[in-house]
Amino acid sequence: MYPVQILGSGMVTGIGLDWASTCAAMRCGMNRFGETRFIDAGGKWIIGSEALLARPYRGRKKLEQLVVPAIKECLLPIKNISADRIQLILCVAEPHRPGRLPGIEDLLMTEVQVEVGARFHPASKTIAQGRVSGVMAVQEASNLLREGRVRYCVIAGTDSFLLSRTLAAYESGNRLLTSKNSNGFIPGEAGAAVLMGNFKQEKAEAVRCLGVGFARETAIVESELPLRADGMVEAFKASLADASKTMGDIDYRFADVNGEQYGFKEATLSVMRTLRQRKDRFEILHLADSIGEVGAASVPCVLGAVLAANQKGYALGRTAICHFSNDDGERAAMVVAH
Fold first, then answer.
1. What does the alpha-carbon distance between residue 314 and residue 281 come to, in Å, rounded to a whole number?
2. For the domain bounded by 207-337, which CATH number is listed?
3. How does pLDDT run across 20-64, given as a tens digit for each residue?
4. Cα atoms in the Cβ-side hemisphere of radius 13 Å centred on 63
5. Distance (Å, rounded) from C-alpha 235 to C-alpha 214?
């Protein structure tokens, strides 16, 4: 992979309406989990992390209003650059996600560009692969920046689990944290975006994406197969090889684990099968304990958090491996460094 760097970030989450406030709240371990307007099977209010938007938007309009401020914010570091020199890659939920809004692949990109007030490069596209969408977008951006077809690339993601059909489906599958189930996730919503540029324009505080890897897991969360983390191990090895690194070179991990035991077990097994040297500390960071499960917005949220940690000097090291997983078995990993 051609290395690319992160130049800026923007976020709208349940704990902040911009990048700085969201990352500061995450650093303090804060959350704004509260009762939603939905009730679980036990008659209790479902706990979630809802973004405090200016108005109570619904449907595609809500997804748009989550991500548009984030896109505008991440573009602040660059000025006097024509929008047609910037590629926009929009990450959204996978087609089979329960309760997924219709038409988001075809309509949301146009609606977002209208609201931003800019027409981005013709290569702009939507990737509907849920949590792994962002890693696919990084690979796409790397190719276009290497070829010189665009000057910059914006990778944005928007998602919300606070939909009645979505919550009902995950609750019926014992996936949701409710009054009757402790092994589940807290639903959230977010819009996030990162600005990617050529690594040759490197800044001291910039974070570079060095390698990516993809694989597929057969023992998915809803299957009864024994989990060996084969898919994530393969994704780890591919991303490390792409970055010319070993797991021993990695200082810490950043994952999309959301509170379910499955995700933590997969993350643990993946390290056990790839790390070949002793480490006194090898911490795993995650955003779900602050903003809940945010689906397709996970990758730009993680990259924004890594950028903030490096700029503010509280990162756990220089190199990290970030990994993401979809319910259908898609796995992705990415090596980042500063």
1. 16
2. 3.40.47.10
3. 999 999 999 999 999 999 999 889 999 999 999 999 999 999 999
4. 30
5. 5
